[in-house]
Amino acid sequence: MRRSSIFLLLGAVFLGLLAVFAARSFLAPRTGDGAGAPQVATVTAVVVAKPMKFGDVVTPDKLKIINLPGALPNGAYPTVREAVGDGNRAALRDINVDELLLTMSITGGEGRMASSTLLGQDMRAVAVPVTETAGAGGFLAPGDRVDVFLTRTMDEGAAYATTIVQGARVLAVGQLADTSKADPVIVKSATLEVTPAEAQRIALAQSIGAITLALRATGDEARMPTTTTSAFEFFGGAGRAQMASAGAPAAASSAPAGPPPIRGPQVTIVRGTESTSYPVAR
């Protein structure tokens, strides 16, 4: 063999060994134990393994554990045991597969579907009777906002309507609290989230008159000044006589006109056979 061929062979072997060494140096950090790579801290979190519907009981077979980088999100559960609790927890809404299970998505383990788990701080839940006409035609749904109106008829036959609560949140319609339901339902009651003072007004209103709910637009939480509306505004000065007599003929036009009707609350004082009415300031 010629000397030049030997030199070429040795050079090829050297270059091959150099290529192998370079390849091993390049791939070593990726295929090795990763000692040189930065370590990212992870935490365990519970996610849904099987889809859950509103009211489904939370059981271990419907959950699984995953690793999340960083800290545990607020309201998440680190273990399946903590998520299941006493075994009586249920879903408050539809939960999809691989969705993080949060405390706000399930009941607190009281073993019943109650509106108390949905109440805000210092708020109260009060149920009001509704009909198809008094309950927005059955289009009320949990999560909606409504205004509450009171209509009553005084002893003298005068009818009044006034707003007693504005922007109350609907917690449930009937016994349904699932916010994913969209079909209109005719029910006999609606549960509203109100303040303690508003709960007192509603309780009093139910004992003296009729309750009507007016549905608000989505996202409308404005509070607007309102006034009491009376039938006198629609029937004029003859409204009192027309309503008291329930359709009796009006007095003769030659009869002297009486004092203008008093609008709003009033007190009647009887002296012998005569009575006098005085307005009462609000």
Main sheet: strands, sense, barrel: 6 strands, antiparallel
Specify Rg, calculated over alpha carbons: 37 Å
The total count of helices amounts to 5
Task: For the record, give the distance between the C-alpha atoms at the N and C termini, rounded to a whole number.
Answer: 123 Å
Low-confidence stretches: 245-257
Strand content: 15-25%
Number of strands: 10
Tell me the series of helices and strands, N- to C-terminal.
Answer: HEEHEEEEHEEHHEE
What class, by secondary structure content? Answer: alpha+beta
Mean pLDDT metric: 75
> What would the principal axes of the Cα set say about the shape?
rod-shaped
Helix content: 10-25%
What labels would you give this structure?
single chain, 282 residues, alpha+beta, Type Iii Antifreeze Protein Isoform Hplc 12, rod-shaped
Write the layout of secondary structure elements.
Blueprint: H1 3-31, E1 42-48, E2 63-69, H2 80-84, E3 124-129, E4 145-153, E5 159-173, E6 189-194, H3 196-208, E7 210-215, E8 229-230, H4 232-235, H5 239-244, E9 266-271, E10 274-279
Antiparallel strand pairs: 1-2, 3-6, 4-5, 4-7, 5-6, 5-8, 9-10
